[in-house]
Amino acid sequence: MGELFAILSALCFSAGNVAINQGSQGKGAxxxxxxxxxxxxxxxxxxxxxxxxxxxxxxxxxxxxxxFAAAGALTIFVGRVFMFASVQHLGAIQASAVKRLGPLFSxxxxxxxxxxxxxxxxxxxxxxxxxxxxMLVLQSTRGKPQGPTPATAARPWRDRIANIGFLYxxxxxxxxxxxxxxxxxxxxxxxxxxxxxxxxxxxxAIIFLAAAVFLRSYRQAVHATFTRFNSWLTAAGVLSSxxxxxxxxxxxxxxxxxxxxxxxxxxxxxxxxxxxxxxxREKVTAPTLFAxxxxxxxxxxxxxx
Length: 305
Hints:
The chain is mainly alpha-helical and 305 residues long. Helix 1 packs antiparallel against helix 11 (231-253) and helix 4 runs antiparallel to helix 13 (266-277). It has one domain (2-118, 156-266). It is 78% helix and 0% strand.
C-alpha cells in the first residue's frame, strides 16, 4: 500500500510541476507557493475530520506535535517555497531533475538516523537513479535555451547562476529529506498522517506570514493569493497538496528510503506530462530520454525488490 501511495504522490507532484511552470509569470511574480500551503492545510484538515480525528485528540502528545511542526517548517515552508521557485526559474523538467537529489539524501538519512534496512538491490537502484540525475543535469547545463520567456528574460547575474548551478533545487531537496525524517519520528509518537500534514501546513503558513512582515516578495505573494485568481497556480496548489498528503500516507506504510526512491520517477513523469500531455516548449533530447529510462529502471528495481 505504501508503494501505491508513493507512486500516486509522484504523479501529483509531476502534474503540479507543469502547472507551476504554466502559471508562473516572471521571476518576480507570485508562483503560488503560499496558496499551495493553505490548500494543503485545508485538504489535510478535511481528511482528518472525515476520519474522525477529533475523537482521537487524546492520543496527541507534545513530542509528536514538535516533530510535526519541525517537519512542516522544513517541508511545507523551506522545501515547497524553494521547489516552487526552482520550477519557476528552471522549468518543470530541469527542476524535477535537480529534485532527484532528494532520494539520495533521504536514503542516507533513513539509514543513518532511523536504522532503515539497506542492501545491494537498493544500492543498485540508487546508482541507476544517481546516474540518470547526473545525465539530466549535464544535459540541462549544456542545452541551449529555446528563446527568451517572461521568466528568463533580463535576469540579473545571481539568477543566471541559479539557473546554471541549480541553487534552489538542492536546498529544497535537502529540506524535504530532513523534514521527512522529522515527519517519520512524528508518526511514531502520533500515528496519524492527516493530522501530521495539517500541523505541518499550519506551521508552514505561520512562518510564511512571519516572513511577509520583513520581505516584500512574501507580502506580495500573500496579497496575490487573495486578490488574483490563476487557474494554473490553483491547480498546482491542489496537486502539490494532494501529493504531500499521499507522501505522508506512504511514510505511514513503508520506509523513508523506499518511498523516496519510488517517488524519484517524478522527474520522468514530468517529462511525459510536459511533452506529451501539455505540449510545453521544453525540449527533450535522446540523452534525456535515456536518463529517464535509467531512472525508471532504478525505481522498478526498488519496487520489485
